[in-house]
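Hypothesis: this fold can be encoded by more than one sequence.
Test: take the structure tokens below, design a sequence, compare later.
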């Protein structure tokens, strides 16, 4: 289970080492937004060196690389370099539906073969709702690729495309167009039977705002969150870690249904639980093993 996924620029130097020690479940080495065009070549080389230096370490976070999107013309150059470093996954920006994932899958397969990397070892985390086209194609990810490990979304690129003044109101809450995009990501992930990863909380000094926003994400069905600063990681991890009480309740629900295999609902301490409660309990317990 990836609760926290921390972005760090591929040319970040010591920031990369700090990210590894942050406690994040995944470190995303960024070749996209945080790297200006004239530094892409150098950043790719740095990403490869970092992957090779850390790939075989024990108890490390997952290592992901955010590549440049298909519309930039830089995807191939990114993959030509970083596949040899065997990242656990690539983060795919502006993934506009299942066909674009199929396209990226083919590119990865060719380069895995050339680099003697086992086929489909490198997974894909798709940034599925970062554009208007991506929003309308969000329902097409199911079955697109065995590589897909989750969907996330991005209000910053989306608001730029819309020409919006902001994507949050004075209280820090998402405005209506972006609440809709967020919900679309949740439904798309559910339809594709994939985890939904909440987007970044850009006001990284506002720890209370981060906590409240992340609690909302967990309540609504997200299983993890992107982060832009190491200080955000402990809060995200805490919020997405089930409490002992939640674990015991889930175990009790599973045990009650196991004791009554044909039951559509069971009673526990005076409360009724039906099959959807069982599904959620099973999912929670399965997440502890992931």
């Amino acid at each position: 289970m990836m609760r926290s996924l921390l972005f760090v620029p591929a040319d970040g130097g010591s920031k990369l080492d700090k990210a590894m020690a942050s406690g994040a479940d995944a470190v995303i080495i960024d070749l996209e937004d945080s790297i200006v065009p004239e530094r892409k070549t150098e950043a790719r080389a740095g990403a490869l060196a970092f992957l090779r230096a850390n790939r075989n370490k024990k108890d490390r976070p997952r290592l992901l690389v955010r590549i440049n999107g298909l519309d930039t013309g830089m995807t191939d150059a990114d993959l030509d370099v970083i596949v040899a470093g065997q990242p656990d996954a690539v983060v795919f920006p502006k993934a506009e539906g299942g066909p674009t994932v199929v396209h990226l899958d083919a590119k990865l397969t060719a380069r895995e073969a050339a680099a003697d990397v086992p086929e489909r070892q490198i997974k894909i985390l798709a940034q599925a709702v970062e554009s208007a086209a991506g929003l309308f194609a969000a329902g097409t990810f199911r079955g697109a690729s065995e590589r897909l490990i989750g969907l996330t979304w991005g209000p910053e690129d989306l608001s730029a495309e819309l020409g919006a003044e902001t994507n949050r109101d004075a209280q820090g809450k998402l405005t209506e167009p972006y609440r809709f995009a967020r919900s679309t990501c949740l439904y798309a992930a559910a339809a594709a039977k994939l985890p939904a990863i909440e987007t970044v909380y850009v006001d990284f000094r506002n720890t209370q705002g981060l906590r409240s926003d992340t609690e909302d994400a967990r309540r609504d069905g997200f299983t993890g969150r992107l982060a832009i600063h190491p200080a955000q990681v402990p809060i995200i991890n805490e919020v997405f870690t089930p409490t002992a009480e939640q674990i015991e309740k889930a175990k009790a629900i599973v045990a009650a249904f196991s004791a009554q295999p044909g039951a559509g609902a069971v009673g526990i301490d005076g409360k009724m639980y039906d099959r959807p409660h069982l599904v959620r309990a099973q999912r929670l317990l399965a997440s502890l093993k992931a």
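The first strand starts at residue 4 and ends at 9. The chain has a mean pLDDT of 94.
Hypothesis status: open.
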